[in-house]
Amino acid sequence: MRSSRFNRRSILRGVLGGATVGMGLPLLDLFLDGNGAALASGAPLPTRFASFFWGLGLTPTRWEPKKVGFDYDIPPQLAFLEGGLNKKTSVFTGFTVGLDGRPSHPHWTGMAAIMTGQCPVKDKSFDRLNSFDTVISDAVGGGTRFRSIEATPFRGATSSYSSRGEDAFKMADDSPLALYTRLFGQGFHDPNSGDWAPDPRVLVKKSVLSTVKEQRDVLWQQTGASDRARLEQYYTSVRELEQKLDAELRQPAPAQACRVPEAPVDLPRKGDVPTVAYNNKHMCELIAMALACNQTNVVNYVFTPATSEMYRPGDTPVYHAHTHEEPIDGKLGYQPISSELADISVGGFGHFLKTLDNIKEGDGTLLDHALVLGYSDTGWAKIHSIDNIPMLLVGGANGRHKGGQHIKVGADPVTRVSLTAQQLAGVPVGSFGTGSMATSKPITEVMA
Amino acid sequence: MSMRALALCGVFAVAPLALAGCASDTSLQANASAAKPGEVVGMRRLTAAQYRQSVADIFGADIKVQGRFEPEVRREGLLAVGAAGAAVSAAGMEQYYAMAASIAEQATAEGRRAKLMPCQPASAKAADDVCATQTLQKYGRLLYRRPLLPNELAARVKLAHAVSTQSGDFYAGLREGFTSLLTAPDFLFRIERAGSGRPVDGAMPVDAYARASRLSYMLWNTTPDDQLLRAAETGDLLTPAGLQAQIDRLTASPRLEEGVEAFFDDMLQLELFDHQSKDPAHFPKYSQVVATQAREQTLRTVVDLLVRRNGDYRDIFTSRDTFMTRGLAMVYKVPYASKADWAPYTFPAGSGRSGLLTQISFLSLFSHPARSSPTKRGVALNEIFLCEVTPAPPGDVDFSQVNGDAATVKKTVRLRLEAHATDETCASCHSMVDPPGLALERFDSLGEYREFENGERIDVKAEMDGQIFEGAAGLGMLLHENPRAPACLVRNLFASGAGRPAVGPDKPTAQALAKTFTEGGYRLPAFLKQLAANPALYTARLAPAPALPGATTKVAARSPSSLKETGR
After folding, report:
1. H/E run at residue B560
2. Beta-carbon separation of A132 and B554 below 8 A
3. What is the DSSP letter of B194?
4. Conformational region of residue B474, where left means phi above 0, alpha means psi within -120 to 50, and beta covers everything else
C-alpha cells in the first residue's frame, strides 16, 4: 500500500475547491425519463458501438437468407437469430472488395477494406490509416473511462483490428481476468453505490501525466515528419489515460442496468473450442457490463484472428488448415468440419448479441441502444475469396437502425456497410473509402 | 548556429558535463538539407526485454516489472527493426503507467533507500528540493540515456515538492517523480538525435548519446551505464580511440552474453513461445515449463557455441552439443542422469538431431498446434537463416485438386504438398520452401522423433539449390556450406544495431561486413567488435514523411466542441 496523507476532506477542500459531492443516491428507473429512452437529466442514453470479428468467414449456401427484404428466412448458420434477434438484424450479402490493382493479401485485405475503406498495399498493415471505429469512438467515446475496449477470447491474439494509424494496432486483453481487472479493478466505481468519493491517488496520477505532457511542444519541434505521427499517437494515448482519470474523478451517474460482475477465473492458455467458448462467455458478460456501467461506449472484439487456429480437442488440423484441406462432402455440398467451426465462430457472435439483449435498459435492452457490426475476413475461406464477406448490423442504435432486413446487392463495395454503420452510430460522416470503394451512399433502407 | 541548435546545446550544457557535439555554424549548414544536430532522427520503442533489463540495471535486479507490454512488431525479420516504427496505444499507456508506478513504489520502499539515495533528505516528512533534484537528476540521466534538460528536471522536482508537501512524505514525492520519468516518451522510446558529424554514405550520423545507446543495447541489451554516458558527455565516444575503448570494455564483459542472447531471441523469433499452444490430447508432455526451457535451451546452445567457445557460426546448423533438463529429455527421449537443473548434453551421431533446426524451439514454433508443417518450417528457415522472404500465397487458390475428395485424402504431408506441383502458381514458391521442411518431417509438431505418419514411412529426401540431401543432418550440412547463411546473420546484426534493414544504400556496407565475418572465420565476438567500430552503425536515414494518417472517412460536419471533446 502506498502511504499517503491525502484524504477525501483534503481533496474536496484543496483540489475540488469545495465542490459538493452528492452521496447516497437512489437508483434505477428514477433516473430515466417517462419514456425510458433518456436519463432524467434529459441526456439521451448513449449509442454504443461494437465491432465483432471472427476469422474465416462462413459457409456459402449456409448463411445467406433466400428471401430479400423484410421477414427474411433464417439460414442454418444464422440460427442464433431465432427468437427475435432477426428483427434487430440487417444481413448484407453480395458486397465486394475493389482491389484497385492492389494485391489481395489472404485473410487480411477483406477485413482491412471494411475497416479502413482501402485495400492496403502491405500485408498486416492498414497503410497507416485509421480504422473507422476510431471515428465512432471520437464521436461517442467521450465521458467514459475508456474511449474503447479491445478484447479477444483467443489467447495470444493480443493485436486487435483497431488502429489510430501508423499500423499500430490497439492491444487487446486476451484473458477474462485481465479484462475484468482493467474494467472493474482499481479505478472503477459502482455507479449505483451511494458512497462515492474521489480517490486522491487519481489526482496525483493526473499531476504525473501533466509533467509528461509538459515536454510535448519541445519534443514536437525537434521531431521530423517521419516520427511525428507516432509521437502524436503517444500523446493521444496519454490524453486517453487522462480522460480515464477525469472520469474517475467525476461521480458516476447511476446506471440502471449496471451490475458489477464477479471476477472470472482464467483457464490455462489453449486454443481449443471449449476454452475459447469459456473465455467468450465471460468476456461477453464483462463487456456487456462495461457498456451498461458506462465504462466505455465502443468495443472492438476479435473472436478469433483471421487465420483462426482454433481447434476441436483431439483434432489434428486447426480451423484454418481445415478450410484449405478438408474435402467438400459430396452429399452435403460443403466442408463439414470447417462448417462446424464456422457455426461455432458465428455462434460466439450470437452469444455476444444475446448477452447484450438480455440486459434490460430503459425502454428496451442494451442491444436496442447499441449498434454491433459482425464481420469477417473472407467470403469463402477455402479459396481466400473476398467477395460476399459476411456482414451484419445488429441492434437498435437508439432507434436509428431499421433492422429485420436482408439487403442483397450486386457487387457494391463493402464500404457502403461501413459508412452505414458510422452514420447509425451517430457520426456526421458523408463518405468513406477510396478508389472504387469510395462511397457516399449509405444503405438507407436500414436507416430509420 | 541556429537558435534551436543554440537552445539545445545550451540546455544540455548545464548538465554536469557539456553536451558532446555542439556544432559550429559550418557543420550545421552542411547538414541542413537532412536533419539539424539535435533533431530527432529515430524513435525506437524499448522491447519488453530492454525495458526489463534497463529497470534492473538502474534500480536493482530485484525490482519486479509486472504488467503487459504492447505487442511487438516484427519488420524485415526483426523486432528490433519493428521497434523503430512502433507506437504506444491507449491500453499500452495504461500498462506502462501501472508498471512505472509499481517500479517507483518498489524503488523508493523503505528498505531500499540507503542504496537508492545519493543524498539524505533534511526530513523524511517534508519536501527537500535539493535532495530531490540530486536524486532525480542521477536517475533521470540513466532513464533518458542522456542528462535531463533543466525544464525536464524542474518539472519533476516541482511535482515531487507538491506531493511531498501534501502527503508529508519526502519519498512519496520522489516516487511520483520517478513514475513521471518512467512514463515519459524519452524513456519508453530510444529517442535518437542527429549529431554534427559528416554524413556516412549519405546517412546522418547520430549524436553521442544515441551512439552510446546503440552500443549498449547491441552488446548488453540494456541502457548505457555511467561510464558510457560519461564518454558521450565528454565527446570521447565520438573519437575512434574513445569508441574503441568502450567497445573493448563492453565486449570483454560477461554481459556480452546478454546482448547475444537478446539478439538471437529476436532473430529466432523465440517470443512466439509466449503465445504457443499445443493440444494436450496430442502432446501430454508439453507444458509451459517445457516451452520456457526449450527457449532457454536454444539460447544456452547459441551462447555456449558462439561466445564461450568462440565457435564457427555455421556450426549452429550441425552441432549436436546442447543443454538439457529433465523435462526436455522426456520430449527428446534421451536419458537424464544429472541432478542439476541443467546439464550439457551431446546427441549421439545418428540421432537425427543436427543443430538448432532440430531443437524443440524451431520444430515446435513453426508447426501447427497438433501437426508439423514443412511449409511453415521452410518459410521460417528461409526468412530467419537466409534472409529470404517467401511471398504470401495468392489470393484465390482452389485447393480442391490438392486435397481431392474424402476417399482420396493423402496420408502424408509430403504427398499432399507434392500435389501443389500440379499448380504452377503454387509450385513456384513451394518448390523453394517445402524441401527443407520435408527434410525435417521426422520431427513432429512438438519436436519428438518419429518415423511414420499415418502408417506410412516418412521420406526425408529433398533437393535444394540443385543438391540432393537427406534428413536434418543433410540439411544442416547444406546450410553450413551456404554463404548466404553467414551473410544473413551479418545483415540482421547490422539491422538490429542500426534499427533499419541493411538494404538499398546500406547494402554495400552489409556486403563488406559479411566479407569481414567470413575472413574472420565466422567468429561472433570478434565480428561484433568490428561491427561496433563501423561508423555506418551510428547513422540514421530519414524515412520519407508519411501521408497524413487518418481514416478514409470524410466527416461532413464537426463542431469545435466535438473536436475539443475528442482531444484531437
Report:
1. helix B560-566
2. no
3. B
4. alpha
Same domain flag for B42 and B180: yes
Owning domain of residue B475:
263-480
Domain count, chain B: 2
Distance of CA A157 to the CA centre of its chain: 15
DSSP string, B247-281: HHHHHHSTTHHHHHHHHHHHHTTGGGGGG----TT
Q: Which of B428, B447, B480 is the last residue of a domain?
A: B480
* Nearest partner of B145 among B237, B69, B67, B80, judged by Cα: B237
In a domain, B412, yes or no: yes
Q: Phi and psi dihedrals of B513, rounded to 5? A: -65, -35
Of B4, B40, B73, the CB nearest to A223: B40
Are residue B229 and residue B297 in the same domain, yes or no?
no
Does B35 fall in a domain? yes
Instruction: Tell me the chain B residues in contact with residue A430 when contact means C-beta distances shorter than 8 Å.
Output: 554-556
Answer whether residue B512 is part of any domain. Answer: no
3-state SS class at A407: strand
> Quick check: pTM over 0.90?
no
Sheet holding A149-151, edge to edge: A69-70, A405-408, A89-93, A391-394, A370-375, A48-53, A298-302, A149-151
- Same domain? For B239 and B302 the reply is no
pLDDT at B170 over 50: yes
Distance, CA of A135 to CA of A364 (rounded, Å): 26
List of E strands, A54-103: 69-70, 89-93
A47-193+258-446 maps to which CATH number? Answer: 3.40.720
Judgement on whether residues B104 and B143 belong to the same structural domain of the protein: yes
Q: What are the residue boundaries of the structural domains of chain A, listed by start?
A: 1-43, 47-193+258-446, 197-250
Q: How far is B321 from chain A (nearest CA, A)?
A: 32
Separation of alpha carbons B493 and B528, rounded Å: 8
Separation between Cα atoms, residue A437 and residue B345, nearest integer Å: 60
Say how many CB pairs under 8 Å bridge A and B.
298
Q: Is the pLDDT of residue A48 over 80?
A: yes
Q: If you average pLDDT over every residue of chain B, what do you get?
A: 86
- Tell me the backbone φ, ψ of residue A446, rounded to 5 degrees: -100, 10
Q: Same domain for B238 and B303?
A: no
Residue among B258, B215, B252, B255 nearest B237 (CA)? B215
The CA distance from B344 to the nearest CA of chain A, in Å, is 31
- Please indicate, yes or no, whether residues B180 and B318 belong to a single structural domain of this protein: no
Estimate to the nearest angstrom the gap between the alpha carbon of A173 and the chain centroid: 12
B74 lies in the same domain as B161: yes
Q: Pick B123 or B543 by higher pLDDT.
A: B123
| Rounded (10°) CA dihedral B272, B274, B280, B283 | 50
Q: Do B405 and A156 touch (CB under 8 A)?
A: no
Option in B151, B184, B556 nearest A429 (CB)? B556
In chain A, which residue's Cα lies nearest the Cα of B93? Answer: A237
User: What's the complex ipTM?
Assistant: 0.85
Q: How far off is chain B from A360, nearest CA to CA, in Å?
A: 29
Choosing from B456, B480, B504, the residue where a domain stops is B480
Residues B78, B123, single domain; the answer is: yes
User: Does residue B245 form part of some domain?
Assistant: yes
Distance CA B118, CA B139 (A): 10
Task: For chain B, count helices (H), then strands (E).
Answer: 26, 11
B358-378 tens-digit pLDDT? 999 999 999 988 888 899 999
